[in-house]
Inverse folding.
């Protein structure tokens, strides 16, 4: 059985690793030129029941513990005046919660656990066509081609493989603008102290200024704004591509204007960014997306269930990988049955998580976000015992 995995992100690599442990070979086709071709972004908290479970199935729990930062779980929520609304401190050294790990460190950990020829770099899948006898013919950018018996789409938000199974549309749920501040302890000790060892969220009306500490001593700043935040006179003409709307966020000055009235100690996070702000659209698939089973092909991770980024996407992508690998290992002679079993369980698991992610995303960018979030984090008093 020749298994092709399109995409060498967290989902695709976890899948290849667990299949390898079961003695099942797979080829990962990745569009990037090498493991260091692109910055992998910020850090993630891995949950015990999903991301950490998948790493345990991958035989990598020990290496994860060496590389993760339990202290990174510390987080604070401030209002625009800089007042602390919530301050969460984890148990020192505890891995029972949701320790943080840099994405690049996690991806390297998975890459290092695979045989050297598993990932074929510089192979961007552009088309997959069913072959008359079963399986798929794959075409890559630049003219390469390959065949496989089973195709797994782990190719992220704009998956090419997805179109073989569903035409579910993507909708834009927010705009995210990112900046990075290198060598923060030395160059910006006040900001390093403000952010602390984990995450900081400053929550205003329909906008969030967030920052997180990475293990290389840099701070990653992320600004979330509603998808429709631009006023009529800021919008580009209708005949321009929709991504041109992002141009309004490419200068620090324009971005700072959106935080008028905020404590300058907080907006200093924008001013200190090393380069110009980098905006992007955050998209999601409709909640409850599913597809009719089709032999020889399936999806995992963002390709299967792109959700608003509220802390579940990577965790669920890795759990998808672990569950699909286990199903394929249990029924190696019948991959169709294995894929069907994986899909049914995955659809049922993801539906409530996607609903929750959409609700939290809407709450985070609502006019009452700060109150809602404090309520979310404040334990409710115990209900009085019912009288007999
Ligand atoms: C700002 C932000 C913060 C987030 N924070 C968290 C968090 O704290 N916790 C969490 O669990 N999740 C988080 N997420 C979500 C998480 O990043 C994704 O859900 C996760 O990365 C999905 O993994 P994946 O392997 O499915 O896709 P990806 O990680 O996107 O990997 C897809 C891979 O496929 C490759 N690829 C794409 N197209 C092709 C092609 N045509 N051919 C070949 N290769 C291709 C890409 O280069 C990439 O390597 C966040 C997302 C965002 C945007």
């Amino acid at each position: 059985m020749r298994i092709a995995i399109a995409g060498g992100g967290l989902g695709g690599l976890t899948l290849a690793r667990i299949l390898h442990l079961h003695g099942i070979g797979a080829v990962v086709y990745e569009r990037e030129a090498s493991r260091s071709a692109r910055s992998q972004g910020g850090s993630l908290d891995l949950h015990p029941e999903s991301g950490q479970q998948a790493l345990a199935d991958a035989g990598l729990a020990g290496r994860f513990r060496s590389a993760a930062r339990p202290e990174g779980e510390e987080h604070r929520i401030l209002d625009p005046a800089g007042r602390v609304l919530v301050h969460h401190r984890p148990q020192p050294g505890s891995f029972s919660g949701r320790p943080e790990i840099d994405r690049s460190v996690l991806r390297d950990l998975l890459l290092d656990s695979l045989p050297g020829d598993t990932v074929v770099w510089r192979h961007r899948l552009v088309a997959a066509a069913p072959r008359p006898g079963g399986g798929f013919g794959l075409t890559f950018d630049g003219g390469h081609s390959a065949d496989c018996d089973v195709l797994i789409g782990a190719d992220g938000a704009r998956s090419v493989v997805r179109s073989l199974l569903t035409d579910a549309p993507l909708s834009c749920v927010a705009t995210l603008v990112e900046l990075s501040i290198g060598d923060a302890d030395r160059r910006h000790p006040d900001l390093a102290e403000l952010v602390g060892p984990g995450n900081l969220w400053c929550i205003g009306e329909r906008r969030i200024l967030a920052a997180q500490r990475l293990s290389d001593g840099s701070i990653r700043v992320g600004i979330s704004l509603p998808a429709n935040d631009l006023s009529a006179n800021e919008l580009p003409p209708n005949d321009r591509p929709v991504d041109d709307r992002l141009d309004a966020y490419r200068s620090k000055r324009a971005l700072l204007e959106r935080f008028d009235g905020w404590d300058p100690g907080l907006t200093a996070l924008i001013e200190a960014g090393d380069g110009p702000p980098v905006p992007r659209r955050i998209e999601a698939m409709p909640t409850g997306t599913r597809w009719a089973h089709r032999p020889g092909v399936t999806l995992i991770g963002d390709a299967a269930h792109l959700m608003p980024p509220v802390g579940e996407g990577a965790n669920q992508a890795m759990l998808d990988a672990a569950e699909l690998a286990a199903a394929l290992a249990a029924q190696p002679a019948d991959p169709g049955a294995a894929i069907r079993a994986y899909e049914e369980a995955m659809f049922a698991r993801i539906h409530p998580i996607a609903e929750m992610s959409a609700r939290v995303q809407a709450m985070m960018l609502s006019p009452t976000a700060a109150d809602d979030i404090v309520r979310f984090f404040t334990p409710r008093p115990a209900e009085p015992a019912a009288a007999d």
In short: The radius of gyration is 22 Å. The longest strand covers residues 171-181.
